[in-house]
């Protein structure tokens, strides 16, 4: 089974659509649909890791976004004969996230569409364990609002979203590698394969900044 990673599609979100160069959320969503359809392989069984922020807004936005991604999975099967397993790692804009007061109703909705729903996962990439999470360890905006729901930085490479940055690579305050798979950081706004992510990690590891020497 091939694995693919992406975060922060923000289906139906007018502000994010405009920031990405689309004057209408529908055009934005259809562009992502076509880019993903073109990128993902034919005649295979794959797994898509969605690292949070499927949408942003009230319950109608959730319903539309879940229906959209479910339709995409059906269309991928009918158009390219590819069966897609979908793993959701919740983000701060997903109402199913435990930081939301009434998350259980939305959690049930997510469970009807995704094959698994969680907030964190550990993944073996080329024999090395990496962490999957919506938030980076550090270095993004307003971390104090979400600190209770972030991972402790224990030195494991982290694959994340949330930042809406076009930069794929950053380093945490402790010097740990962080790989951004948000839509803006993914070539063509399409999911990155595990091979592509592994290549990014390998290249970044060769460029790791030296830790400041202790005096």
UniProtKB/TrEMBL annotation:
Residues 4-165 form the Calcineurin-like phosphoesterase domain. GO terms for molecular function: hydrolase activity. It comes from the Bacteria. Pfam families: Metallophos (PF00149). InterPro entries: Calcineurin-like_PHP (IPR004843), Metallo-depent_PP-like (IPR029052). Transmembrane segments: none annotated. This is Ser/Thr phosphatase family protein. It comes from Corynebacterium matruchotii ATCC 14266. The lineage of its organism: Bacteria, Bacillati, Actinomycetota, Actinomycetes, Mycobacteriales.
